[in-house]
Design goal:
By secondary structure, the protein is an alpha+beta fold. Helix content is 36%, strand content 11%. It is built from 15 helices and 10 strands. Bound molecules: cobalamin and iron/sulfur cluster (SF4) (2 copies).
Length: 346
């Protein structure tokens, strides 16, 4: 198969963006190792344990891999940006987590792509599907395949579509020569620094590494990945975010006319749900409400911890009663954050 045929097939499998890269080490692996050694990954051990070395070379994931087909799936919808929406009584769940879990949706599309390539390849074909969780430098290979450049907010940005897209990859044993568009596009951030200035927790840090995100300060990490207590200095900066954060993409000029997806699964279950509604969810109700969405990753305890902080950050007296209830929670993490949030209402 040739690169134009692969692109066409990817398009038919539901991917608006696609490109081809060689399954070889990329120069960014050195940045990754420096980032990880610098402690920027916080407690995300899956980034720093023995799997960090696998990121050195994609052939450690599939020994016969010769090509990486990198795909992007848009998830932007017509709903407002977090920077346009100022109702303090309502929670912000980040755009990527409003609807269906992207891991499943992308995997289904990649399985179709895999079947198409397998049918044309014949015997000896080997492949591996990666979506998010594999130790693969997804943004670097997608950049290599021409899907976009890595912006100062560290997101992959496409000149025409913006940055609201997920990434997935299909590692294949086929040798597919990259086409003229399958090359890293120029960095189009220019002199802009909007994302750095807008980040409420100063997570986008300057340094020798170039564009660096200190995950330990990023609201996305704090609300989703961090299991324990949220460090005090970052609590107020989190505002009403209860799952993830979109600010550094909301302010990006390349997202002003960002393409929208027609996938019904990305529509919000409930746009910006009221904080008191979230605070009253039982564990079973939490699971039912967010079933098959990325939100379950925060777990019930972490989610209520975030809701408590967001209610405190709102400073609204109407949240006193739900916060007092959370402060009596048998979960010490939730109770402690609710108690601190109550202090904010004084
Ligand atoms: C861990 C992780 C996180 C962490 C750390 C984020 C980070 N920036 O590293 C946290 C939890 C904070 C996070 C947040 C988010 N994430 Co995330 N995350 C990942 C994951 C699993 C690994 C990323 C990683 O390796 N980070 C470590 C850093 C060092 O690696 P990197 O970002 O790839 O950095 C490369 C470049 O920056 C480059 N580089 C570094 N310095 C320099 C300097 C120069 C000069 C150059 C040229 C290059 C360069 O080299 C690095 C190594 O390849 C990937 C999936 C994957 N397997 O790759 C998804 C992924 C990056 N996340 C994604 C998303 C959607 C998000 C959020 C938008 C979710 C949200 N709304 O809350 C936010 C965005 C926050 C942000 N500004 O990045 C998407 C990004 C899609 C896109 N268009 O970019 C991915 C690809 C998942 C997916 N499959 O779609 N994420
Ligand atoms: S996702 Fe939010 S907290 Fe993280 S770097 Fe972007 S603006 Fe900052
Ligand atoms: S806001 Fe500006 S600096 Fe940040 S990623 Fe977008 S274009 Fe680049």
């Amino acid at each position: 198969m040739t690169w134009p045929e692969v692109r066409l097939l990817a398009r038919r499998c539901g991917f608006e963006l696609a490109g081809v890269a060689r399954a070889e080490p990329v120069r960014e692996r050195a940045w990754y190792q420096a980032w990880s050694a610098g402690g920027f990954a916080g407690e995300m051990r899956y980034l720093t344990d023995r799997r960090a070395e696998v990121r050195e070379d994609p052939r450690l994931l599939l020994a016969s891999a010769r090509t990486i087909v990198a795909v992007g799936k848009l998830y932007n919808t017509a709903w407002p940006l977090s920077t346009e929406f100022s109702d303090a009584e309502r929670a912000w769940i980040s755009r990527y987590a409003w609807g269906d879990d992207y891991h499943r949706v992308l995997r289904l599309g990649l399985e179709r792509l895999d079947a198409g390539l397998r049918a044309s390849a014949g015997a000896g074909y080997e492949s591996k599907i990666c979506v998010d969780t594999a130790p693969l430098l997804e943004r670097s290979y997608a950049r290599q395949a021409g899907l976009g450049w890595i912006g100062r907010n560290t997101c992959l940005i496409n000149q025409r579509s913006g940055s609201w897209f997920f990434l997935g990859e299909l590692l294949v044993s086929l040798a597919i020569d990259p086409g003229p568009e399958d090359a890293p596009p120029p960095d189009r951030c220019g002199t802009c620094r909007r994302c750095i200035e807008a980040c409420p927790t100063q997570a986008l840090v300057p340094g020798e590494l170039g564009y660096t995100l200190d995950a330990r300060q990023c609201i996305s990490y704090l609300t989703i990945e961090l299991r324990g207590e949220i460090p005090d200095p970052h609590r107020s900066g989190m505002g009403r975010h209860v799952f993830g954060c979109d600010i550094c993409q909301d302010v990006c000029p390349w997202n002003r006319r960002a393409s929208q997806s027609d996938e019904p699964g990305w529509q919000p279950l409930e746009f910006a749900p009221p904080l008191d509604k979230l605070a009253s969810l039982t564990e079973a109700e939490f699971r039912a409400m967010f079933e098959n969405t990325p939100v379950t990753r925060a777990r019930y305890s972490g989610f209520l911890r975030n809701v408590a902080l967001a209610m405190g950050n709102s400073r609204l007296e109407k949240f006193r009663a739900p916060l007092e209830k959370l402060a009596r929670s048998p979960d010490a993490l939730v109770a402690a954050h609710a108690e601190q949030a109550l202090e904010n209402l004084k």
